Amino acid sequence: MAELLKWYQRAGSCADVVCSTRVRLARNLKHYPFPAYASVEQKEEIEQKVKDAMLSGNSILSREFRFVPLENLSEEAAVSFVERHLVSPEYISDRKGKGVLLSQDESVSIMINEEDHLRIQVLREGLSLKEAAETADRIDTLLSETLQFAFDQEFGYLTQCPTNLGTGMRASLMLHLPALTEQGAMGRIAGNLTKLGLTLRGTYGEGTQILGALYQLSNQITLGLSENEAISNLSSIASQLMEEERRAREELCRTLPVQDKIDRAAGVLQSARLLSSQEFMELISYLRMGLAAGLLQGAAPQDLNALTMEVQPATLMAKAGESLDQRQRDSLRAKLAREACAHITVAKE
């Protein structure tokens, strides 16, 4: 039987710029206070109700999920969930009364008792906003058959943070924008996006740093817009950003200094014995740009996506099943990079 591929191991649309798509729905149950004000007993009740609604139904979807109590996870395993974008960094700071319903391919994670009672998150490879939104809506509908969500006729779905009122939906794209970053254009772009109701965040969401020129582009407005309008707006702006990045990439990749950086990145990834996390992210960014520009060949975007997931610090340790010091992590990361990049060569002119 073939091994089930994780979502990030699959080929996606517009993968030269768009690494992944995420659609997240925030929902809360009627008659319960928001998680910040709920007692431990109330959180346990909420958790049980959501588990029963998802796992006890007759839906095909229910058979694809497993429940992971956060309290049972090691520190490394919990941080690995963040590194794989399954949960938010804030979610694991206090793991009591929290759990995640996770699909087999990790494309769907339902966080229970995060900022809201439920955070339904769908991840897809490449540019897949419509497909991700449809999956999220299907799960939302399934859960609403047995759960009563807090809803107001005027304000829509009620959420702990007012910025999520209305649809409760956040749609985002993980964009690789190395050329625009190299040209120093990201400050201007971020300012313009804010005026359009969109925002650029760090690699792991709000308040996180940007690693390897990876940015999260997402909608800011959830009130007064339908889900379809928000997704259409995000898709339109993303298309413009993609074209801008491609033009900048084509221009930069004609220059000798950038070609040199790309070739050096490939050489280091193919031969290094030690690689820090930060150095890896910088090198893989240039490698990804070189492949997208046609200067390199021998690997697909999904290969680099999978490698990037696998070599994050906590994920390395979680997979190894033991604690590793920095030197051990850097050694293992370099080994995985050498194996994954072994077949990459300079493209024939």
Order of SSEs: EHEHEEEHEEEHHEEHHHEHHHE
Radius of gyration, whole Å: 21 Å
The major sheet is characterized as:
8 strands, antiparallel
Q: Helix fraction? A: 40-55%
**Arithmetic mean of pLDDT:** 91
End-to-end C-alpha gap: 41 Å
The helix/strand class is alpha+beta
Low-confidence stretches: none
**Number of separate helices:** 11
With strands numbered from the N-terminus, the spatial order across the biggest sheet is: 2-3-4-5-1-8-10-9
User: Beta fraction of the residues?
Assistant: 15-25%
| Overall 3D shape | globular
How would you portray this structure in words?
The protein has 349 residues and is an alpha+beta fold. Strands 2-3-4-5-1-8-10-9 form an eight-stranded antiparallel sheet. A two-stranded antiparallel sheet has the order 6-7. A hairpin with a 4-residue loop joins strand 3 and strand 4. Helix 2 packs across helix 10, helix 7 packs across helix 8 and helix 7 crosses helix 11. The longest helix has 26 residues. It is globular. The two termini are 41 Å apart. The model has no long low-confidence stretch (mean pLDDT 91).
Index terms:
single chain; 349 residues; alpha+beta; 8-stranded antiparallel β-sheet; two-stranded antiparallel sheet; 17% strand
Task: Present the secondary structure layout.
Layout: E1 18-27, H1 40-55, E2 65-69, H2 75-83, E3 99-103, E4 108-112, E5 118-125, H3 129-144, E6 151-152, E7 156-157, E8 169-176, H4 178-182, H5 186-195, E9 198-201, E10 214-219, H6 227-252, H7 256-271, H8 277-292, E11 296-297, H9 301-310, H10 313-320, H11 326-341, E12 345-346
Antiparallel strand pairs: 1-5, 1-8, 2-3, 3-4, 4-5, 6-7, 8-10, 9-10, 11-12
